[in-house]
Amino acid sequence: MVRNQLPTTRRRLLASGAAVSASVIAGCIGGSGGGGGDTFHFTQEQSREEQFDPVVSNDAYSFQVIQLVFDGLYEFGEDLELQPKLAAGEPTVERDGTRYIFELVEGATFHNGDEVTASDVAHSFTAPVEEETENASEYDMIESTEVIDDYQLQVDLGEDPYGPFELQTMGVTVVPESVRTEDREAFNTDPVGSGPFTFADLQENEYVEIERRDDYWDDLEPNLPRVRFEAHDDNAGRVSDIRSGNTDAIAGVPNEDWSVLENEENVTLHSAESPTFMYMAFNCNEGPTTNPEVRRAIAHSFSMSDFIESNAGNVASPMYSPIPPVVNEIWEFPEDEYQELLPSYDPEQAQSLLDEHAPDGFTPTIITPEGIRAQLAERIATRLDEIGYGADVQVLDFATLVDTYTSGNADDYQMYLLGWTGGPDPDYYLYPLFHESAAGVNQGHYYGGSDGFHQAIADGRNSADQQERYDLYEPVIREIVEQLPALPAFTQDNTMASRDYVQDLQAHPEVTRNPDLVADHANVSME
What we know:
Strands 1, 2, 9, 10, 11, 12, 13, 14, 15, 16, 17, 18 and 19 form a 13-stranded mixed beta sheet that branches. A four-stranded antiparallel beta sheet has the order 5-6-8-7, with helices on one face. A two-stranded antiparallel ribbon has the order 3-4. The radius of gyration is 23 Å and the shape is globular. It is built from 17 helices and 23 strands. It has three domains: 18-69 and 195-266 and 500-527, D-Maltodextrin-Binding Protein, domain 2 (3-Layer(aba) Sandwich), CATH 3.40.190.10; 71-185, Dipeptide-binding Protein, Domain 1 (Dipeptide-binding Protein, domain 1); 276-492, Dipeptide-binding Protein, Domain 3 (Dipeptide-binding Protein, domain 3). It starts with 12 loop residues before the first strand and ends with a strand. α8 packs antiparallel against α12 (347-357), α15 (427-434) crosses α16 (453-461) and α16 (453-461) packs antiparallel against α17 (466-483). The relative contact order is 0.16. β5 and β6 form a beta hairpin. By secondary structure, the protein is α+β, with helices and mostly antiparallel strands.
């Protein structure tokens, strides 16, 4: 499902940070922060690509702006469950889960006054594929659309259902077809949506501002008159800005600064578990780590829980399977059982297994991006050294890492550390990260699996029956935990800090929904 390797995208491989220089953007922080004026200042932790057309944009931080300018056919509520927005209710499902008929609310309008119609929704579903954008893979299961009338749309999938369709795909962000197709380039930096805010001002690589729409079609009316988004990828700079009142809220609270801000008199912290999966994968294609006993030995050699507690305890939680806990809450896979199956910290067992199954002088190469995953790699190397082995840790820039880990070559690595962010469906983790079709694309472990392993993942994608999908996925997850082609590490939290005059701000599990400024469950204001 992943076609590019951008550092941060809506559903992508997770790199370690943005490439923008702090010196470029440091002067953009502040303005009327500290509660002055009517503008709410929100400081993002990474720079935007400045693409605001939902059909084109695949950048989480541009999408944080998009989600306030546009409405979706369905949208995430407080958690990861879709709720109708432009849709009048749940779709009618026919043809064994391959046909969806959507009815739209009447009276929803775009910022230019045009009514939102079924043609606009159809265009939003099909344009990513027709235009071969980076989002094409999110919609390429759609075979055709048929506009029944202005308020009814029929969407037909291929011969097979697509399992995640009802949990995520139908939450498409809706664009006005006529305005967008008239000048797509202009639309990308001056978009027209149907959401509660309108696009106001863009100074590329500096800030983007949106303002409250006075004639919003929905009953919700934002409390905030104007919002300015700025980016500051320097952790210390963001923390300094929120402490000094130079901004109203920041995203991405560093673990080491959590307690500092927690004790700051005029600052409030916000946190929500996200659907991220940080992991260490083993080379199952060639070399010593093709042996599951070697993989188990390495997992026994260090304590993942101790590492998380000491390095990320404020902003991350342990994982015990490739399905993030916030997603597991929806599906109820037996996470406690998986935790029991994972190797616990046992250096004597680690040494015994390596002595028996690893070659003499075994010193595996671990490749990793910088940041916390590099710290984890160094912790593993230290613990292996303590039992007479060790590891060669190579910290690579993201582009080099991608080129290297997809090779499956034992001369390049035995382990690599990466992360992935998905949605509320197991498919978003199991298919791209473990199905054989993605070997060498999104994965470098080349795990062959047991008989039926890959077929079960494919069958789960091509089923609309959620119980059937559960029954297919559970043995797959259990096998991953037992055989360890990838060792689950931790899931990250979406964190924010705000000044105490900011009211009703909440962190959302989905990073693109932050800041969640106006919804049924929250309407942010400054007092």
